Amino acid sequence: MRATLMYGAGDVRVENVPDPTIQQPTDAVVRVLRSCVCGSDLWPYGAMPASEHGVRMGHEFLGVVEETGAEVSALTAGDLVVAPFVWSDNTCEFCREGLHTSCLHGGLWARDGIDGGQGEAVRVPQAQGTLVKLPVAEDSALLPSLLTLSDVFCTGHHCAVTAGVGPRTTVTVVGDGAVGLSAVLAAKRLGAEHIILMGRHKDRTDLGRDFGATDVVPERGEEGIERVRELTRGHGTHTVLECVGTLPALHMSIGAVRPGGTISRVGAPQYGEVPLGFPEFMNNITLTGGVAPARAYIEELLPDVLEGRIEPGRVFDHAVGLDEVPAGYRAMADREALKVLVKP
Amino acid sequence: MRATLMYGAGDVRVENVPDPTIQQPTDAVVRVLRSCVCGSDLWPYGAMPASEHGVRMGHEFLGVVEETGAEVSALTAGDLVVAPFVWSDNTCEFCREGLHTSCLHGGLWARDGIDGGQGEAVRVPQAQGTLVKLPVAEDSALLPSLLTLSDVFCTGHHCAVTAGVGPRTTVTVVGDGAVGLSAVLAAKRLGAEHIILMGRHKDRTDLGRDFGATDVVPERGEEGIERVRELTRGHGTHTVLECVGTLPALHMSIGAVRPGGTISRVGAPQYGEVPLGFPEFMNNITLTGGVAPARAYIEELLPDVLEGRIEPGRVFDHAVGLDEVPAGYRAMADREALKVLVKP
Questions:
Q1: Are B296 and B100 in contact (CB under 8 A)?
Q2: What percent of chain B shows pLDDT beyond 90?
Q3: Which helix (H) or strand (E) element contains residue A127?
Q4: pLDDT tens per residue across span B11-35
Q5: A185: Cβ–Cβ under 8 A, 6 or more apart, which residues?
Q6: Using the beta-carbon criterion (under 8 Å), do B260 and A94 form an inter-chain contact?
Q7: 3-class secondary structure, B206
Q8: Distances from the Cα of A242 to the Cα of A134, A174, A176, A316, B167, angstroms
Q9: Looking at the complex, does the CB of residue A94 fall below 8 Å from at least one CB of chain B?
Q10: Which of B272, B275, B291 sits opposite A282 (nearest CB)?
Q11: Interchain CB distance below 8 Å, B290 and A280
Q12: Which stretches make up the Alcohol dehydrogenase-like N-terminal domain (chains A, B) (predicted)?
């Protein structure tokens, strides 16, 4: 089959790789219908050292079950399924607590002999725990929104949930990328009425307003913090959803949070130290969030997508075939595309 | 009156200062019955640059109301009261949310013209919001335990509450000082059944066991982390109560916390940066806690003290008169005393 590999910064290729087959009785093979490029794929795209063999790419996909192992009783060939961006058994003590990203028998896509999502097919380990059936047809117009349950919308939702967003909490979202916009939509869905979106790409912040942002702050740094404080009687917001992962974004989050408030971070941290010292201690600031256990949220969010109450798939503003994936990376890296859908 | 001043590291003196008087209609004057030395007083005691004029000391006290300003309707001369370690109006938006340490009209003792607790009397600003009446006599045997509601027990309680301690959470307490032991007692009171106390002073950890610790880990650093992991099937505990404030204590906390778990810190941070980078992000670790809004907890904790269900005053193992306060500091700094009670 054809699949995407990265050989170094800026070097993405689509190549022939071995067809996936059942290797464990808990496996399934899924033919990919839709995949996409993630903001986190852009970190290696910007900085990966050259590699002779390349690494497989992609961790978001939905598709059709083609074959199942002997222990996969709840899935049948032909089922349309979505895969969360971490595979898991859904039965261990961490999964039972909703922390599937720490599954004792789970792991990441596209490494250690596991296929990536940006290809024609995937061998899915722990298939019964990992995959969630979708009651739609292969040509459903809902596929883009359903695909966001794999990662980006669940990540925004995780950010809002761990921050404690609700009808009485004010919210700042830092970042107008696909995760930030998803966080706006998630906050709105959880009842937030005052959502400040920090971002300066008008087409993106316009979508953010559609998703529920009540204010947009294009300024950055101290100036951005000042603007958020002006909008909140000087205090900042109860919650800050940090959807970037850089130190400047974290600094803005700390500046924008209210005493007693919570910063939740879901952007993969490009830093090792967090500047939460004495002043933040005196203000009782909480830092939470982390990699989103998407699997824990899919069933809960699915009805809202199926019944059209939310349309998280609007973050896809660009679509490519499998052979055009390298161009898709380029478009996202150059900020010509917000998020790129892949149709193998 | 006589009061305690610090003139530099290791230089504590008891001197004559002006008697407190009513200055604002919201003031009260309280004659101090019991005060104490706080672990946080030891930070300047170890490092304060020499000062010509000295600074007033003490932020924990209980005493008898002697005089009240015109707007203090709920207190009368003769009332026995406890003061939380931050004064506050108890009516602003932060106080109403239980975050009295961020009161819009509050402040700290022993600075900016406000008396300290380690003296014969105190002018209490925002007296009606700050002081809580205690239904006991001046000679009550409960005074030491009631005094802990001023700071140390409420601080341990805040640590446990913000960490989310309950019957189903396992707990590690880092530090066997008075705050750490208070955190053990608070965790036990909140229903925790598995409480690991990290500390290596046997007399202190013995009191920790009395307070509810089920395991004691005297080892530190990587060895200490390893021991906690052995006690928790390799995973760490759901909550870690960081009651020291140093970077090594924080490192141990990060090593001892379970994926998806929470570190709560109540030791005043002696660091500016927190090492919560990519690995902790992948494990969904939360950092919470901060300076304890003691005022928010006093009414809730008071009945347990009055009815003898808890005895947090056992952290006082040493008592001095006002003139012996310098010796009290020395005893705590030399670890000869766990916590020093002051009887002016």
A1: yes
A2: 100
A3: helix A127-130
A4: 999 999 999 999 999 999 999 999 9
A5: A153, A156, A211, A212, A310, A312
A6: yes
A7: helix
A8: 30, 5, 10, 21, 32
A9: yes
A10: B291
A11: yes
A12: 25-135
Smallest CA–CA distance, residue A268 to chain B, in Å, is 7
Cross-chain residue pair B94–A290, CB shorter than 8 Å: no
Give this complex's ipTM.
Answer: 0.96
One-letter identity of residue A52: E
Name the closest residue on chain B to residue A261, using Cα atoms: B288
Burial level of B9, CB count in 10 A (0-12/13-18/19+)? middle
Q: Each residue of A146-203: pLDDT tens digit?
A: 999 999 999 999 999 999 999 999 999 999 999 999 999 999 999 999 999 999 999 9
Q: Among candidates B139, B88, B82, which has minimal Cα distance to B302?
A: B82
B269 with A283: Cβ contact below 8 A: no
Please tell me which residue of chain A has the smallest CA distance to B273.
A275
Report the residue from A97, A260, A268 with minimal CB separation from B99.
A260
CA A261 from centre of chain: 24
Put simply, whether B113 touches A (Cβ < 8 Å) is no
At A223, list the tokens. Answer: 């100036």
Architecture of domain A156-289: 3-Layer(aba) Sandwich (3.40)
Give the list of residues 6+ apart from residue A80 with CB closer than 8 angstroms, or none.
A33, A62, A63, A64, A65, A133, A134, A135, A136, A137, A138
pLDDT tens digits for range A43-83: 999 999 999 999 999 999 999 999 999 999 999 999 999 99
Cβ separation of B278 and A288 shorter than 8 Å? no
Q: Say how far apart CA B335 and CA B178 lie, in whole Å.
A: 11
Please tell me if the domain spanning A2-151+294-343 has the same topology as the one spanning A156-289: no
pLDDT in tens, B254-264: 999 999 999 99
Class of domain A2-151+294-343: alpha beta
**Looking at residues A80-87, what average pLDDT do you find?**
98
Domain ranges of chain B: 2-151+293-343, 153-289
What lies within 8 Å, CB to CB, of A150 at 6+ separation is A36, A59, A60, A61, A62, A82, A83, A84, A85, A117, A294
Q: Quote the minimal CA–CA distance from A279 to chain B in Å.
A: 9
Residue A48 CA: distances (Å) to CA of A40, A41, A245, B78, B339:
12, 10, 17, 73, 54
- For residues A154 and A146, is the Cβ–Cβ distance under 8 A? no
Q: Which residues of A307-343 are buried (b: 16+ CB within 10 A; e: fewer)?
A: eeebbbbbbbbbebebebbbbbbbbbbeeebbbbbbe
In sequence order, what are the beta bridge partners of A4? A14
Question: Angle CA(B338)–CA(B341)–CA(B344) in degrees, nearest 5?
Answer: 155
Q: How far is CA B170 from CA A86, A290, B167, in A?
A: 26, 21, 8
Q: How confident is the model at residue A312 (pLDDT cuts 50, 70, 90)?
A: very high
Q: How far is residue A214's CA from residue A217's CA, in Å, rounded to a whole number?
A: 10
Helices (H), A12-121: 42-47, 93-96
Beta bridge partners of A178: none
Out of A259, A265, A271, name the one closest to residue B102 (CB): A259
Contact of B109 with B150, CB cutoff 8 Å? no
- Which CATH number does the domain B153-289 belong to among 3.40.50.300, 3.40.50.1580, 3.40.50.720, 1.10.287.610? 3.40.50.720
Residue A298, classed as helix, strand or coil, is helix
CATH code of B2-151+293-343, in short, is: 3.90.180.10
